[in-house]
Amino acid sequence: MTALVRPALVLAWKDVMLELRSRDVLISSLVFALLTVVVFNFALDIEARTVDALAPGVLWVAFAFAGVLAMSRAFVIEKDKGSLDGLLLCPVSRDSLYFGKMLSLFLFMAVIEALLLPAFIILFDYSAFTWEMGVAMGLATLGFAIVGTLFSAIAVNTRSREIMLPVLFFPVVAPLIIGAVEVSTGAVGDVVGAMGAGRWLQLMAVFDVVFLFVCPWVFGLVMEE
Amino acid sequence: MSTVEKTAPAVSARASGRAIPVSLVLLALASVLMLVDMYLIFMWAPTEAVMGHVQRIFYIHVPMAWLAFTAFGLVFIGSVMYLWKRDTKWDNLASSAAEIGVVFTSLVLITGPIWAKPVWGIWWTWDARLTTTLVLWLIYVGYLMLRAYSPNRSQAALYSAVVGVVGFIDVPIVYFAVNWWRTQHQRLVIGSGTIEGSLHSDMRVTLYFSLLAFSFLFAYLLWQRMSTRRMEDELRAARYQVERETRR
Q1: Could you give the number of structural domains in chain B?
Q2: CA distance B162 to chain A (A)
Q3: Is B223 in contact with B22 (CB distance < 8 Å)?
């Protein structure tokens, strides 16, 4: 177990250190997320009367777009300097490599969300945040990181990788986006319906668990050469 | 250069010599069955009382939807086997099935609205089955794009196999999510059993015959595509060999 966890933590720490020094990912993704929200404000005319109904959709589109931006950087920084080969030559398992990358990606996305949410609350006087929404954010972000790490590792090797990643990523994580938005809308209290937040959180948890087994396994096979 | 010209036709002739009989048989069967199928659909099957003639598109729409799902199942099997065995024949199966699956799903997404507009009054509804089909189509279009953008043959096979596995596992989760999402907001436009439940026996016979005819079309296309891929691989290997020898 330590053979898996320790190298993963070291690799994640390397990414965090790199990020603290360059601030490449966080700044660009955060500005992009904020811009998304501003554009939506013009497009949908968000105001006090409509904010509760529109907020979940706008927030999750912003989170998802910023997340894709962050995950496209995850392997590009390794690829551009040729350090991916170095990582592959390291005497650590592919699982450690995967979980290290996944962990740093999860952290970056969590930070982006933690910074964007207060900004959103202040800008639109949004007050409907509940603990279910917090759990949904955690589950969706984890799922984004699980699937995103795998697809990012693939897309980085293709031509027009900036296009390939979202094209692969968004259809697959559709259940997470639906679930997260539904839980958030339920939190507002207009339509909780027969479903309730609990069932959606379960579905998102199932998604995370299934792909937590599938993605590292596939990653190990793909990264062999 | 002249060596290449001599080698290439010899290889393809050998490959097609092996492939043509089976594909010819499949083509002949598919053609005959398809002609009979057209007769059954347009002449023999009774006209639906409420929907009228437009309902006949159902005999084309439904078998293609079923076969598209079968195709994506084959993509999954081919992808898993390729990741496991690393034999290009499994990749040939997966990628050929993906192409045909995307074509069939596209036709399903086109024939659906043609039927829906006169019957429901709308082209499209975000109902569970429709939305899942659309998401499925997007996943496998991504699969084909990924192959096109991959730097070489073996990486295309490897990367697309990942999508073939992840995408197929994702489908039931997408279906659950979309089903819950929609039942919460609006009632399904397709009442359960409007078609399936009250199917006249002649209609059912036509549907199953149509499924048979389209299955042979599917088998023919799959066989043809796979043998083309095999020829491409043999040609690539031959060219590589020739280049290596001329360099020496």
Answers
A1: 1
A2: 7
A3: yes
Residues B174/B135, Cβ–Cβ less than 8 Å: yes
Q: Are B59 and B242 in contact (CB under 8 A)?
A: no
Report the C-alpha gap between B127 and A93 in whole angstroms.
44
Look up the pTM and report it: 0.85
Average pLDDT over residues B10-24: 58
Q: Can you tell me the mean pLDDT for B219-243? A: 91
Name the minimum distance, in Å, from the CA of A52 to any CA of chain B: 17
The residue length of chain A stands at: 225
- A206: contact with B, CB 8 A cutoff: yes
Question: What's the one-letter identity of residue A29?
Answer: S
Q: What is the 3-state secondary structure (H, E, C) of A111-137?
A: HHHHHHHHHHHHHHCCCCCCHHHHHHH
Interface test with A, best of B91, B132, B140, B158 (most A CBs within 10 A): B158
Distance of CA A161 to the CA centre of its chain: 18
pLDDT digits (tens, 9 = 90+) for A55-78: 888 888 999 999 999 888 888 888
Instruction: Residue B228: give the domain boundaries.
Output: 2-247
Q: Domain coordinates of chain A in residue numbers?
A: 2-222
